[in-house]
Amino acid sequence: MMGEKSGAQGQLFYQFNLDDVVPADHLLRRIDAVLDLSDLRAQLAPFYSHTGRPSIDPELMLRMLLIGYCYGIRSERRLCEEVRLNLAYRWFCRLGIEASVPDHSTFSKTRHGRFREADILRSLFETTVKTCMDKGLVGGEGFATDASIIRADANRQNHIDGDDNHHDWTGGAGGSPPSRAVREYLKGLDREAAPPKEISLSDPASRLTAAVGRPAFFGWCTNYLIDVKHAVIMDVAATPALRTAEVNATKAMIERVEDRFGMKPKRLIGDTAYGTAEMLAWMVDEKNIEPHVPVWDRGERDDGTFGRSDFVYDAETNAYTCPGGKKLGQFNRNYAKPRAGVDKDGFRKYRARQSDCGACALKQQCCPGQPYRRVLRSVHEDAREVARAVNATPDFEQSRRDRKKVEMLFAHLKRILKLDRLRLRGPSGAHDEFTLAAAAQNLRKLAKLLVPPDLNVATA
User: Which residues are paired to 200 by β-bridges?
Assistant: First the structure.
């Protein structure tokens, strides 16, 4: 007999417990077990008034933001709707079944106000790093670093030329005041630096960048410093899409991890962007870190002529010996006033005598289009030699494989967490988004690795 639901009158009273309907192996339940917000209110207390009506609980807002970044919910309007409808989200936010959800506009006011003034998102991220260290997920022996470009919330068409010095950023008389992103740009503007080719009017601190074969766009870089044992993110930094900014960010992150957690790696893994002479010297001479980084070297040639490695350097005489047995000195005559011999780029130039090169049988293999051969040597060549020696070891091959872990984190960030375009503008907006996303990734890592072995649940 076919059954049929009868009666439209619902039950008058219900007994309902949210904890009973959230599965024991749910991702948010496991994240809740490792999430430490015990110091949140103490850190935010100086930024709240002691009078007036109570504000919305900051822990509630932070938990809602974590849900959004853990599940790739990029819109705050949609986040509020999802928390209103999803029982597991309500349970994680400590909201009862009849409790109201904050309005989406509250996030903007709080994120740009008290959260940013107290740098609470950085504090949350560092708490996840400390938890990972306490749980034994951080080895501390090897760190890997890299950067990935994220699109800025800026239209390519809405820009001015970089050399336009007449643009009125203040909005002019009677106009609207400049946006927060513009104010941050003007506050940190370096007038002595070379201006970029184009400047976005909506997010002027971002930089124009492009991948090979793709249209250019304004973007920011998220920089990760990870421990290679379990790919835990040790630090994160937001920089404009510039290579020099990426290298400087890595230095700052290593020093910050050492200062905050008392941990310095024995080896640092990176790509060729981190293999400049200055960066290698910083790692080897200042920080005593083994550079597992390919050397950025423009001295080798691919046209069949002799490269710099074919010339032998003698430190005692400060001269090179060419394959033909001739000397290349830095100075071919004595000067009354000694010269440093270092150019503005940090290189020493060594030159052969024109008479030696002209009579040499190997000239066509050495300098066919020049009267004599020149060789450049960096002032940090000793550090470069250390890196070259590391590059020839089996450990370097393992480091190449370990470097993929940071690339996988970037892929997870863009494809799973949906952070392929920023919603906030300016340096502080990029900092907030990247820091909160890194905290969410560390929490997901904790939830995945600390789950009991009898539970089998997909956390992606």
Answer: 159
Count of residues making up the chain: 460
Question: On the CB side of 412, how many CA atoms lie within 13 Å of its CA?
Answer: 20
Nearest residue to 360 via CA among 322, 330, 311, 403: 322
Number of helical H runs and strand E runs in the chain: 18, 13
pLDDT at 232 over 90: yes
* Distance in angstroms (rounded) separating the CA atoms of residues 3 and 54: 52
Would residue 210 be called left, alpha or beta, if left means φ above 0 and alpha means ψ between -120 and 50 degrees? beta
- The sign one gets for the Cα dihedral 310, 313, 319, 324 is negative
pTM: 0.88
Q: Hey, what are 330's tokens?
A: 């830095």
Q: Where are the beta strands (DSSP E) in 81-128?
A: none
- CA dist 187 and 415 (Å) reads 34
pLDDT tens string 67-82: 999 999 989 999 999 9
CB 162 within 8 A of CB 191: no
Q: How far is CA 47 from the centre of its chain?
A: 29
Phi, psi of 299 (to 5 degrees): -85, -15
Read off the tokens for 162: 């970089």
Give dist(CA 44, CA 28) in Å, integer.
Answer: 24
What is the pLDDT at residue 169? 77
The dihedral sign for the CA sequence 352, 356, 358, 364:
negative
Per-residue exposure over 164-203, b if at least 16 CB sit within 10 Å of its own CB, e if not: eeeeebeeeeeeeebbebbebbeeeeeeeeeebeebbbbb
- For residue 221, the 8-state DSSP code is E
**Cα–Cα distance between 331 and 349 in angstroms, integer?**
9
Nearest-10 crossing angle of helices 76-85, 58-70: 100
Give residue for tokens 């046209």.
303
CA distance 109 to 200: 24
Please say whether the beta carbons of 183 and 429 come within 8 A: no
Tell me which amino acid residue 333 is: R
Whole-angstrom Cα distance, residue 123 to residue 206? 25
Q: How do residues 1-54 score in pLDDT, each as one tens digit?
A: 566 766 666 666 667 788 888 998 899 999 999 999 988 888 888 877 777 777
**Which distant-in-sequence residues (6+ apart) come within 8 Å of 41 by Cβ?**
58, 59
Identify the DSSP state of 272: G
3-state secondary structure at position 185: helix
Encode pLDDT of 325-369 as tens digits: 988 888 876 666 666 678 887 888 999 988 889 889 898 899 888
